[in-house]
Prior knowledge:
By secondary structure, this protein is mostly helical.
Amino acid sequence: MEGLPSALTRQLSKGEQRLEQLHLDQTNAQQDDDWTNDPQNPHNWTSRRKISMILLVSCIGYVCTMGSTIYAPGRQQVAAQFDVSAEASILPVSLFNIGMGLGPLIASPLSETFGRRVVYLVVLPIFSLFVLGWGFSNSLASLILCRFFAGVFASPSVAIAAATIADMVPPSQRAFPLILYYTTPTLGALSGPIIGGFVIANRSWHWTAWVTLFIAVPIFFPILFTRESYKKVLLARRARTSSQALSTDAEEDKPSLGSRLNVFITQNLGRPAVMLLTEPICSFLCLYMSFQFGLLYLFVVSSPGIYAKTYGFEIQAQSLSFFGLLIGCALAPSLLIYIELYRYRPRLARSPDHHLEPEARLDGAMIGSIMLPFGLFMFAFTARPDISFYVPMFAQGIVMFGSLTVYIPAGIYIVETYGAKYGASASGANSLLRYALASTFPLFAPTMFAQLGTRNATCVLGGFTVLMAGIPWVLRKWGPHLRKRSKYRVDD
């Protein structure tokens, strides 16, 4: 009988906990309902405001990636002016990409702490200042340094753009905005050498920086008139204006600075690397996507030399060698839009619960995984003097078409697999590996093509894409099993 009071106390305590949890659930439900109908909710913004923001972040992505490659045609001038080797003149391209890979590791968690808008407002002016320094550089060291930090401060805007779109657009409507967003930075990277080639033909390499600024400033200026879109920050602002935010209990429950800093470092900064190393879905897809991104920069550095050696292209004509890649990039979204309209959405409508597993997004990637190696092998065997240069350009178009039809669905698949909670970390892991390869591929590309020749070097690259072509097919079948085993899985 002596244990009866304590047992009764425990039962009462459990009952109180259940009542408190029920009250908390009801409060959260009421808050969610209030937020759903709140005009400050980005999902409730007007279509005009949403479209303007989507176009703005896409254009910013275009400018930032254009800045990474517009310098490439000026490498010969830089090598001659500073009396350095051809390999050393590539370092400003590689260091820009290293900066692009490092920036999101800090910027993504900062955007989740302070909001998206403040990140845009801080990093874009600093990016512009380092572009200015790049233009005024009078040594290779200062050029490399300015290009590196320009990449660091360009990358946050590129990294959080997809999250900004996700803030405004519900999952069922995200495909078209994300297709646009993932395409425009690639177009920027491809059009950079074309613009740079025409600049170099008439001006010095310093003008690649001035042209970047002339394009960037009018695009960056409208950010001043945008609104914050991140839900967590908006709710925190609303809470601070409510009487609940002033309660004593809330002050007592407020975590210490040390605990918040620990969570920031271990969960936000550490998670991308952990996911890259331990998550099979993240690891293999990021490797596949990063290899394709490396191919893009490999062609940016190598294509002018290939067409100059094989077809005798002069400096301006060398810039035209990128048109095949550019056209392939521009056409790739058409296939993905077709799949979205005539395959994905009808299947979604027929689904009893109006829900499809993330693997349904991989149809385009399965097609692209076949086109990519086909285009590379076609380029390998047609880039020769007795065949018109239009044929290898067409082959490069197939390469880029196949690459993007893998890259875009894979990016959407990662976001839908890991959800809002872990999707940013998975994207950060992707950015880290993607720009790591984009920085190293241009360094060995000229030597590889010089020693192996165009055909053999391209066949080696094609062989790697054949080895990785099965990744989307395997995930299409075994992805659900891998997601269930993941500790970062998102419950449907």
